[in-house]
Design a protein that fits this description.
Shape: globular
Helix content: 25-40%
Largest sheet: 9 strands, mixed
CATH architecture: 3-Layer(aba) Sandwich
CATH superfamily: Class I glutamine amidotransferase (GATase) domain
Radius of gyration: 18 Å
Number of domains: 1
CATH class: Alpha Beta
CATH topology: Rossmann fold
Order of helices and strands: EHEEHEHEEHEEEHHHHH
Number of strands: 9
């Protein structure tokens, strides 16, 4: 019998101890992927914001999570300096080694990295985006490995008070990156459509939305009395009902959940694996 492939994956937890569904979903996706593909996965988590923990370079794959709060107010903080030093270490490794470390940035992490690389303007939204929304691919993004098997548009869970807009195309081109997707068109709103996904280079990619969102888990979470009342108070009963219905649609969140992070792991393992 051939030995199992061994893969080391690090999750950078940016939730700052706030209860969330994101970390659970990321863990479950990785563990399910390992079982499905007969992989021996070493999975470790690092509490970045409270404990200032960062992984070393012994991992093959890194996933940096979403999190609460402002992606602007933390500029210059100690934890953010530690986080960006980790990112610089990965960049230096990838610039010199033939097998590159693969990184996925989600939501809050995505906003931080867009600001760090100065590839766009990160700013407040006029109102909080919360719900299931269509995400539109830009020209050429249909060949992006992250989006394999998805329709255009596809649907994703979006929960944010900030946005990434006004891209610096020269900076992106200099990095070897490109914008992959933007938010839904809103003809009645005279505002620029925000960036929803970026490939920063051939080893780093990020999404503004939550590709890890698990439809059944989120549906149960939103139907808890406390959470239901909170959502209705903040966004209205129609928004709560719409989310429940869309979470049950197999062509929406369930499809995105079963494709994007598995796609990332597929492409990452082609480039970064040990035995």
């Amino acid at each position: 019998m051939e030995p199992q492939t061994s893969v080391r994956i690090a999750i950078l937890d940016l939730y700052e101890g706030v209860p969330n569904q994101g970390m659970r979903c990321i863990r479950e996706l990785i563990n399910t992927y390992g079982k499905t593909h007969d992989l021996h996965i070493r999975l470790d988590e690092f509490e970045v914001r409270k404990e200032k923990q960062i992984p070393d370079l012994s991992y093959d794959i890194y996933i940096s999570s979403g999190g609460p709060g402002s992606p602007l107010d933390s500029e210059g903080s100690e934890w953010e300096s530690v986080y960006f030093e980790w990112l610089s270490e990965v960049e230096r490794f990838n610039a010199t080694e033939p097998v590159r470390k693969q990184v996925l940035f989600i939501c809050h992490s995505f906003q931080l990295v867009c600001r760090h690389y100065a590839i766009a303007h990160v700013t407040n939204r006029k109102s909080t985006a919360f719900g299931v929304f269509p995400v539109h691919m830009l020209e050429g993004a249909q060949t992006e490995p992250l989006f394999a098997g998805l329709q255009d548009p596809f649907y994703a869970v979006d929960s944010r008070s900030y946005q990434v807009i006004q891209p610096n195309h020269e900076r992106l081109e200099e990095m070897g990156g490109r914008i992959l997707a933007i938010e839904k068109e809103r003809p009645h709103v005279p505002l620029e459509r925000a960036i929803m996904a970026v490939r920063f280079n051939d080893s780093m990619v990020g999404t503004q939305f939550h590709p890890e969102a698990d439809a059944s888990g989120m549906s149960m979470y939103l139907q808890r009395d406390d959470r239901k009342h909170t959502v209705i108070a903040e966004h209205g009963e129609a928004k709560w009902q719409s989310m429940i219905e869309q979470l049950d649609d197999p062509d929406k969140i369930r499809w995105t959940y079963s494709h994007i992070i598995p796609n990332f792991l597929d492409s990452a393992l082609m480039l970064a694996q040990t035995t």
